[in-house]
Design goal:
This protein is α/β, with parallel strands linked by helices. Helices cover 38% and strands 20% of the residues. The strands form four sheets. A six-stranded mixed sheet has the order 1-5-4-2-3-6, sandwiched between helices. Strand 20 and strand 21 (507-516) form a beta hairpin. It is globular and about 70 Å long. It starts with a helix and ends with a helix. The relative contact order is 0.09.
C-alpha cells in the first residue's frame, strides 16, 4: 500500500505543470508524509452539477492545474461529441471568467489553452469579474459553453470550477456525468494539447454590454434616492456595482474600505460569506457612522446579494427569504408577468405572493441550475442570498442587479415615508407570518452527514415541536414534480422542514419554516414570538432525531 501510494504520487509529480504544487508534493514524498499523501491520492475530486470545488494543493483530491486541465479537456471532449453549434470559422466558442482567488487566473488560462488545443475557440474575460458577467457573456457572445473559475464564498484555501452550457445556465444531469466520464477517460496530461497562444482576451465591450443590460432591471422614472453602505467582502464586485449604481443614478455607495479591494486571503473575515457570523461587522460599523437607508454586501464573486436594514437602534441582516419576498412584491407592484420560481428550501411565501397576483409559480431542486430552467421564468430566488431578477440577461443568480432592484424598492418606500421592514409587515398580515431558520452543521468527517441522513430515513420523526408530521418524503426517490436528490422533506401542520447535505461545503443543512396566521398589524409581535418559539422547538427536536 505504501509503495503504491508513493508510486502514484511520483507519477502525478512527473507531469504536474505547476512549480508550486510540484515543490509541495516533492516535500511530502521526501518526508514520507503518508497520511497527507493518502488524503490527496485517495481518489479524485468528483465533477458534478456544481462542477469542481475543493482545497488548493497537489494531487487529484485537490484543486490544481493538473485537475483543471483534465476538467477542461473533458468538457472540450463533451462539447465536440455533442455537436456544438459552429461560429463563423466552424468552431464553437467557450468563454471563460475568473475571480481574484489564488490560482484563478492560472486556471482560466489553462482552460483557454485546452479549448484552443481541442479545436474550439476560447475567449477569456479581461480581468477578475463577477460571475454574473460570465453568465451574461455566454448568451451575449453566442458561446457554446462557459467556465467560471471561482469558489464563491468558500474559505481562502479553496477554489472551484463552474460550468455553463450555451443557454447560459449551469449544467444539470446528465451533462455532469457525461463530462465526468470524459474527464476520467484522460490517461495523461501529455495527451492534452495546450498551445501557448491562439485564444482571445476580451476587452471591456462585454462588460459594457452587461452594464447596459442592468438598466432593464429598473422601472422607468422610479425614485433613486436610497443611500447605501456597500461591502465587496474582499471580492470582485466593487467596480461593477459602483458602475451600475452610477448608471442608474443612485447616490454613490459608501464603501467598507477594509473589504473593498480584491484579496484572496480575505483577511478581515473567517469565512467570506455575508451569512457567516461576524462577516458583516465592519459594514455595520460603517452604517452606524453614516446612517444609510440600507447596507448591501456581495459575496466574493458577486453572484449573491445580502441586505441589512436598521431595526430599532441597530442594524440586522435580512434573511434571504425576506429579500426574496420583498423583490417579488416589488416586481408584482411594477406589473411583472411570467413565472415566479424558487428552490424547495426557500420560503413558501413566494408561492402565496405569486398566487395572489395570478402569476405562475414553480418549485425546483436546490440551485440556480434548476431555477434558471423554469419555462417562462420572470423571477427566481433562493434563500442563500441568490436572486435572478433579469433572466433574459443573466440566467443565474446576480448580486449586482439584485442590489439595484432592492435599492430601487428602498427608494420607492422612502418616498412614501416607509421602509423595507414596513413592507415585510404588510406581507405578513396579508399572507401569514412566514418565519424561516436553518440548522447547519459543519463537519470534518463526511460520514457524520451520511449517518444523520440514514438515521432520519430509518426512523423519521412523527412530530417536531409538538406539530404532527403529516407527510415525510425521501427526495432521493424523486416526486411527480422533482427529479431525485439526496434530501428529506417533512410537511407539518403549519410548518415545513427539509434536510440535505450541502452540495459545495462539508455541511448538513436543515431548512425550517413555520407559518403563523396574523389578523392585523397589532398581532405581529405575538405572531413573531410564537414563530420564534416554534422554530427553536423544531430545531431542538430535529437535532435530536438526526443525532447532530
Amino acid at each position: 500500500m505504501h509503495d503504491d501510494l508513493i508510486a502514484r504520487a511520483k507519477a502525478w509529480l512527473a507531469e504536474d505543470p505547476d512549480a508550486e504544487t510540484r515543490e509541495e508534493l516533492a516535500k511530502l514524498i521526501d518526508a514520507g508524509e503518508t497520511d497527507e499523501l493518502a488524503a490527496r491520492f485517495s481518489g479524485t475530486l468528483q465533477f458534478g452539477t456544481a462542477g469542481l470545488r475543493g482545497e488548493l494543493g497537489a494531487g487529484p483530491m485537490r484543486m490544481n492545474r493538473g485537475v483543471v486541465i483534465r476538467a477542461a479537456a473533458g468538457l472540450a471532449a463533451y462539447l465536440k461529441k455533442n455537436g456544438t453549434p459552429h461560429g463563423g470559422d466552424g468552431a464553437g466558442l467557450v468563454v471563460i471568467g475568473y475571480d481574484a482567488r489564488h490560482k484563478s487566473a492560472d486556471f482560466a488560462r489553462d482552460t483557454a489553452a485546452v479549448m484552443t488545443g481541442a479545436g474550439l475557440r476560447a475567449a477569456v474575460l479581461p480581468r477578475p469579474l463577477p460571475t454574473p458577467v460570465l453568465a451574461f457573456a455566454i448568451r451575449h457572445l453566442g458561446a457554446v459553453a462557459g467556465v467560471e473559475v471561482t469558489a464563491s464564498h468558500n474559505p481562502p484555501r479553496d477554489n472551484g470550477y463552474k460550468v455553463y452550457l450555451g443557454d447560459g445556465s449551469q449544467i444539470v444531469p446528465p451533462a455532469d456525468a457525461e463530462i465526468a466520464a470524459e474527464i476520467d477517460a484522460i490517461a495523461s496530461l501529455d495527451d492534452v494539447p495546450r498551445p501557448e497562444s491562439g485564444w482571445q482576451t476580451l476587452d471591456d465591450a462585454v462588460l459594457d454590454a452587461y452594464l447596459a443590460r442592468t438598466d432593464a432591471v429598473l422601472g422607468a422614472g422610479s425614485p433613486r434616492t436610497a443611500r447605501t453602505v456597500y461591502t465587496a467582502m474582499h471580492g470582485v464586485g466593487r467596480d461593477v456595482l459602483l458602475a451600475a449604481f452610477a448608471r442608474a443614478g443612485f447616490p454613490e455607495p459608501v464603501l467598507v474600505a477594509e473589504q473593498a479591494d480584491p484579496d484572496p486571503d480575505f483577511p478581515t473575515v473567517a469565512f467570506p460569506n455575508p451569512e457567516e457570523p461576524g462577516a458583516m461587522d465592519l459594514a455595520f460599523a460603517r452604517a452606524r457612522a453614516t446612517d444609510p437607508d440600507l447596507v448591501i454586501a456581495n459575496d466574493p464573486d458577486a453572484d449573491r446579494c445580502a441586505v441589512a436594514v436598521k431595526d430599532g437602534g441597530d442594524w440586522r441582516m435580512l434573511r434571504g427569504d425576506e429579500v426574496g419576498a420583498l423583490l417579488a412584491a416589488h416586481l408584482v407592484r411594477r406589473g411583472a408577468r411570467g413565472t415566479f420560481a424558487e428552490s424547495i428550501v426557500s420560503s413558501s411565501l413566494l408561492g402565496r405572493i405569486a398566487g395572489k397576483a395570478g402569476l405562475p409559480y414553480e418549485e425546483t431542486l436546490t440551485g440556480f441550475k434548476w431555477i434558471a430552467r423554469v419555462d417562462g421564468l420572470r423571477y427566481g430566488y433562493e434563500e442563500a442570498l441568490g436572486y435572478c431578477v433579469d433572466p433574459e440577461g443573466v440566467r443565474d443568480k446576480d448580486g449586482i442587479t439584485a442590489a439595484l432592484l432592492i435599492t430601487e424598492l428602498a427608494s420607492v418606500l422612502k418616498e412614501e415615508g416607509r421602509t423595507l421592514l414596513d413592507l415585510l409587515d404588510d406581507l405578513a398580515v396579508e399572507h401569514g407570518l412566514h418565519a424561516t431558520d436553518q440548522l447547519s452543521v459543519r463537519v470534518q468527517d463526511l460520514s457524520l452527514i451520511a449517518d444523520a441522513m440514514r438515521r432520519l430515513r430509518e426512523q423519521p420523526p412523527a412530530e417536531l415541536a409538538g406539530l404532527p408530521v403529516t407527510r415525510a418524503e425521501d427526495l432521493s426517490l424523486g416526486t411527480d414534480r422533482l427529479p431525485p436528490t439526496d434530501g428529506l422533506r417533512y410537511t407539518l401542520t403549519g410548518a415545513r422542514v427539509i434536510v440535505r447535505p450541502s452540495g459545495t461545503e462539508p455541511k448538513l443543512k436543515c431548512y425550517l419554516e413555520v407559518v403563523v396566521p396574523v389578523r392585523d398589524h397589532a398581532g405581529l409581535p405575538a405572531a413573531r414570538a410564537r414563530a420564534a418559539e416554534l422554530l427553536n422547538a423544531v430545531r431542538r427536536d430535529l437535532s435530536a432525531a438526526a443525532g447532530i
